[in-house]
TrEMBL record:
InterPro entries, sorted: Aminotransferase_I/II_large, Kynurenine-oxoglutarate_AT, PyrdxlP-dep_Trfase, PyrdxlP-dep_Trfase_major, PyrdxlP-dep_Trfase_small
Domain of life, source organism: Eukaryota
Cofactor annotation: pyridoxal 5'-phosphate
Natural source organism: Lupinus angustifolius (Narrow-leaved blue lupine)
Protein name: Aminotransferase class I/classII large domain-containing protein
Record domain Aminotransferase class I/classII large: where: 83-433
Keyword Transport: no
Short name of any one Pfam family annotated for the protein: Aminotran_1_2
UniProt keyword terms in alphabetical order: Aminotransferase, Pyridoxal phosphate, Transferase
A single GO cellular-component term on record: cytoplasm
GO molecular function: kynurenine-oxoglutarate transaminase activity; pyridoxal phosphate binding
NCBIfam families: PRK09082.1
Length: 439
């Protein structure tokens, strides 16, 4: 059986994608396989099954996103025994006290539908943490909505507050769900490119991108994939533009506890900004429990209204026992967050030193668990070709960044590695790079 995949841009909704060059023809596609239906014929007690091929179908608003080839490349990675520094999830487990809290909640019978906007204890814990982190006092009942991961907070925010035709400005490279969800909302996406070496926000470009139709600016700090953290100066400027033009900020802060060298600043904490900001976050990165998918959106009541309207019809409520455990997680002692940061800084050092030693130009990562490098010293045509070479010939997986841009050309020199892996895995990857990567 042979499946053809006609995609030159490879995205999926959870940041887990690995590319193939456009010249490649993947041989296996579970995505396409899933579009086949089986037709059973029963004759003389014998059942035969024929595969009937259907053309792929997708609504127009998602047409341009093609399909992920993550699965195919994971298979390729497995075939080549590649070490996966592509996927943004830890290969180690979350803390026992949080897992125990979930088990206890299940034993205690916290197993039926939760209150739609969050179990009261979690809303309270989120408010407590937000106050600790930002100094802002929010009403847990009126200003916090618990969602299924930050991904749903993003979707509920966009679908609940953006009208068809509204313009939303993204900083490219951007997390893949933003563009797809904006497309589902019928929004017009404008993107401003953050460029190496420091990925500074090009303020003048931003200023000229704002029009009377601009409804929101999406900010992600610390920033995936670059590790950039928006500075107070940049955020103050963005804030003044938003206030002047009556624009909202949707702020994705899932890596806020992985801010290494620079202070993390929540846009909502800047003067005049709380009333126009939706702050989104989740449990996954901070507690190494990405599979739990508990997230939240914090916003003033007039914006929370829209978020909750969308959330009510997207998922209505999210996992009850995991919400209880998340409340326990967020009340972790300060030492937990200090150790998390220290561990990640050690991991970052192993990877960054290794990448520099083999000849990459490595751009500073001040936050997140990603680092972006310039692969061009190795002479490959683009990021996709380089990543393919890296898997097949070196045995390491990285992510081509062109998939994070409206204009993929902007990312063709850059690839992203993650250091959310145990130190042994990071050292093994560095060894492979040293041994096999050739200029
Ligand atoms: C920038 C960013 N936002 C949101 C998410 C998704 O968060 P969650 O797993 O809580 O849905 C990710 C996950 O990779 C991310 O990198």
């Amino acid at each position: 059986m042979r499946f053809i995949l006609s995609s030159s841009k490879f995205l999926n909704s959870s940041n887990h994608f690995i590319p193939l060059s456009s010249s490649s023809t993947p041989k296996f596609s579970p995505f396409i396989a899933a579009t086949m239906s089986t037709v059973s014929n029963t004759h003389n007690d014998v059942t035969t099954t024929q595969i009937k091929h259907h053309p792929l179908q997708v609504a127009k608003r998602l047409e341009k996103f093609k399909t992920t080839i993550f699965t195919q490349m994971s298979m390729l990675a497995a075939k080549h025994g590649a070490i996966n520094l592509g996927q943004g999830f830890p290969n180690f487990d979350g803390p026992d006290f949080v897992k125990e809290a979930a088990i206890q909640a299940i034993r205690d019978g916290k197993n039926q539908y939760a209150r739609g906007y969050g179990v009261p204890d979690l809303n309270n814990a989120i408010a407590e943490r937000f106050k600790k982190d930002t100094g802002l006092v929010v009403d847990p009942e009126k200003e916090i909505t618990v969602t299924s991961g930050c991904t749903e907070a993003i979707a509920a925010t966009i679908l609940g507050l953006i009208n068809p035709g509204d313009e939303v400005i993204l900083f490219a490279p951007f997390y893949d769900s933003y563009e797809a969800t904006l497309s589902m909302a019928g929004a017009k996406v404008k993107s401003i490119t953050l460029r190496p070496p420091d990925f500074a926000a090009p303020i003048e470009e931003l200023k000229s991108a704002i029009s009377k139709n601009t409804r929101a600016i999406m900010i992600n700090t610390p920033h995936n994939p670059t590790g950039k953290m928006f500075t107070r100066e940049e955020l103050n400027f963005i804030a003044s533009l938003c206030i002047e033009n009556d624009v909202l900020v949707f702020s994705d802060e899932v890596y806020d506890k992985l801010a290494f060298d620079v202070e993390h600043i929540s846009p909502a904490s800047l003067p005049g900004m709380f009333e126009r900001t939706v702050t989104m976050n989740s449990l996954g990165k901070t507690f190494s429990l990405t599979g739990w998918k508990i997230g939240w959106a914090i916003a003033p009541p007039h914006l929370t209204w829209g978020v909750r309207q969308a959330h009510s019809y997207l998922t209505f409520a999210t996992s009850t026992p995991m919400q209880s455990a998340t409340a326990a997680a967020l009340r972790a002692p300060d030492s937990y967050f200090v150790e998390l940061k220290r561990d990640y800084m050690a991991k970052r050092a192993i990877l960054v030193e290794g990448l520099e030693a083999v000849g990459f130009k490595v751009f500073p990562s001040n936050g997140t668990y990603f680092v972006v490098v310039d692969h061009t010293p190795f002479g490959h045509e683009n990021d996709v070709a380089f990543c393919e070479y890296l898997i097949k010939e070196v045995g390491v997986v990285a992510i081509p960044t062109s998939v994070f841009y409206l204009n993929p050309e902007d990312g063709k020199n850059l690839v992203r590695f993650t250091f959310c892996k145990d130190e042994g895995t990071l050292r093994a990857a560095v060894e492979r790079l040293k041994e096999k990567l050739r200029k």
